[in-house]
């Protein structure tokens, strides 16, 4: 027994020495001998994944990385095995198919389907699996489909305006201060509920979030912690074991609510021009498995709603804080339509300043500020002219690109004029040199956002209807700087309060 105790005593110092020296040796290797050792970036981020994880958990990842890009350049090492780019050429090299190049696949650390969980459009990593699911969904997101869906958009735009009118009618002086962010969310979630499941979430009708959506927002920060833990498999294993049964049940209930909505929609006997109608084959057989439908429509509910609402909230926030730009857009909208019935998507597309204001909102308030990494294929490949070994994580910092003076004049200012047609041809325009193609708000390539036509339609319609019906202003002392908002995979929005009243030409009758 004494010999055993002696062995244990002598082994502990050895174990302690290993625990102390291994991280140090690993950090030295990452810093000086790793294939990425010569890639620009801060030494601390190159040595260990910990600075990245800390930044992710604090919600400051996009701001921290932007500062590092300004210091170290457009190609930046942000972890031992990850490089991020603030260069417009990276969009093409990483996301677009290139002849004689293998595709850059999604990083499984972020996207791998959980065990015993069905695959979704977002989690499908293999190109053939993703293409199969996308083919089933794509017809529901075309311009032709949008034309058939337009009456549904107008239905919720009318409800959006009516509910705000109702609330305003009860206020003294018919004027009120309102946090507009939730209302944009009500609008976009209700539309996707109708287009995706044949039934609204009734957020507008009830002037509050549906419980499913409220739970979604409350879990956003938790998702960042889960993502961070995946870099340390042992920690992820421990976290999974520590999840209380009540939380597991809540997660299951959250998923089952969407599954129930899918059930009801698939059992409809009447034909509707919605997204789900294109998933159902002509012979009644679904083009995707039932599990894939449930999982895909669950993620699309967020991807197709919260992101659009983020851009709307950010755009209006910039407009009210730039009254001269707001006045131009308001005059354009009110000059183009005489009655509410005159609004159509076709006519809205012909309003140049409306298009420009939304484009500028997409630039300064990207719904996904940090484009999650892809993996350099086996054997290595080049990005922006630099070779990287296979397995290197490569990501794009949309937030940094969109605010780079190399691409945009006065990059931190809200200037819709940069998107007007004459800006690229007028030799006196300060925006003539802007590289507008650097903005890729809906990504590029085979995995670009299918819902961009729908998103543009929602943004044009609700923003124009809002400014046509109401006079809106900033609230002194309560202004929000979008640059101060944190990012936990999604943007964590603060209340964007506006002062509003009915314009004189519109009555409550």
- Order of strands, widest sheet: 1-2-8-5-3
- Terminal CA distance reads 93 Å
CATH topology: Cytochrome p450
Characterize the biggest β-sheet. Answer: 5 strands, mixed
Helix content: 40-55%
Class based on secondary structure composition and strand pairing = alpha+beta
Q: Outline, from the CA principal axes?
A: globular
Could you write a compact summary of the structure shown?
With 509 residues, the chain is α+β, with helices and mostly antiparallel strands. Helices cover 51% and strands 9% of the residues. The strands form four sheets. A five-stranded mixed sheet has the order 1-2-8-5-3, with helices on both faces.
Please characterize this protein's 3D structure.
- This protein is of the alpha+beta class.
- It has a single domain (34-502), classed as Cytochrome P450 (Cytochrome p450, Orthogonal Bundle), CATH 1.10.630.
- It is 51% helix and 9% strand.
- It has 21 helices and 12 strands.
- The protein has a 5-stranded mixed sheet with strand order 1-2-8-5-3, with helices on both faces. The chain has a 3-stranded antiparallel sheet with strand order 4-12-9. Strands 6-7 form a two-stranded antiparallel sheet.
- A hairpin with a 2-residue loop joins strand 6 and strand 7 (386-388).
- The longest helix has 31 residues, at 2-32.
- It is globular, with a radius of gyration of 25 Å.
- The N and C termini lie far apart (93 Å).
């Amino acid at each position: 027994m004494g010999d055993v105790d002696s062995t244990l005593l002598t082994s502990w110092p050895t174990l302690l020495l290993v625990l102390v020296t291994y991280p140090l040796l690993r950090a030295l290797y990452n810093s000086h001998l790793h294939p990425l050792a010569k890639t620009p970036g801060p030494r601390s981020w190159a040595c260990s994944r910990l600075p990245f994880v800390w930044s992710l958990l604090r919600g400051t990842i996009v701001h921290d990385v932007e500062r590092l890009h300004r210091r170290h350049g457009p190609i930046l090492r942000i972890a031992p095995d990850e490089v991020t780019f603030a260069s417009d050429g990276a969009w093409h090299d990483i996301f677009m198919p290139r002849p004689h190049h293998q595709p850059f696949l999604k990083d499984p650390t972020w996207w791998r389907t959980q065990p015993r969980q069905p695959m979704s459009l977002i989690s499908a990593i293999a190109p053939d699996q993703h293409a199969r699911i996308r083919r089933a969904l794509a017809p529901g997101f075309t311009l032709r489909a949008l034309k058939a869906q337009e009456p549904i958009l107008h239905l919720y735009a009318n409800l959006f305006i009516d509910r705000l009118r109702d609330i305003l009618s009860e206020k003294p002086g018919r004027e009120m201060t309102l946090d507009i962010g939730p209302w944009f969310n009500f609008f976009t979630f209700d539309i996707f509920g109708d287009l995706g499941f044949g039934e609204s979430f009734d957020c507008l009708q009830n002037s509050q979030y549906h419980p499913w959506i409220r739970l979604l927002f409350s879990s956003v920060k938790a998702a960042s912690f889960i993502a961070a833990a995946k870099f340390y498999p042992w920690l992820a294993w421990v976290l999974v074991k520590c999840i209380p049964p009540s939380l597991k049940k809540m997660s299951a209930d959250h998923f089952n609510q969407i599954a129930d909505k899918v059930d009801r929609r698939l059992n409809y006997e009447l034909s509707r021009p919605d997204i789900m109608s294109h998933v159902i084959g002509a012979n009644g057989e679904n083009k995707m498995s039932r599990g894939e439908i449930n999982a895909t429509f669950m993620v699309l509910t967020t991807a197709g709603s919260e992101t659009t609402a983020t851009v709307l909230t950010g755009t209006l926030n910039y407009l009210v804080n730039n009254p001269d730009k707001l006045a131009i857009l308001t005059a354009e909208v009110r000059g183009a339509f005489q009655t509410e019935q005159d609004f159509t998507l076709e006519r809205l597309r012909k309003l140049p300043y409306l298009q420009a204001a939304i484009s500028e909102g997409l630039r300064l308030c990207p719904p996904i500020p940090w484009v999650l990494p892809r993996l350099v294929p086996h054997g290595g490949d080049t990005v922006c002219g630099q070779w990287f070994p296979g397995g290197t994580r490569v990501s794009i910092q949309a937030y940094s690109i969109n605010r780079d003076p190399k691409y945009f004049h006065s990059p931190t200012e809200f200037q819709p004029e940069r998107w007007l047609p004459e800006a690229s041809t007028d030799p006196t325009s300060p925006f003539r040199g802007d590289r507008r193609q650097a903005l890729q708000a809906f990504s590029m390539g085979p995995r670009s956002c299918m819902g961009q036509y729908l998103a543009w339609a929602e943004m044009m319609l609700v923003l124009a209807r809002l400014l046509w019906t109401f006079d809106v202003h900033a609230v002194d002392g309560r202004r929000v700087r979008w640059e101060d908002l944190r990012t936990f995979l999604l943007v964590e929005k603060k209340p964007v309060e506006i002062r509003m009243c009915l314009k004189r030409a519109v009555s409550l009758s």
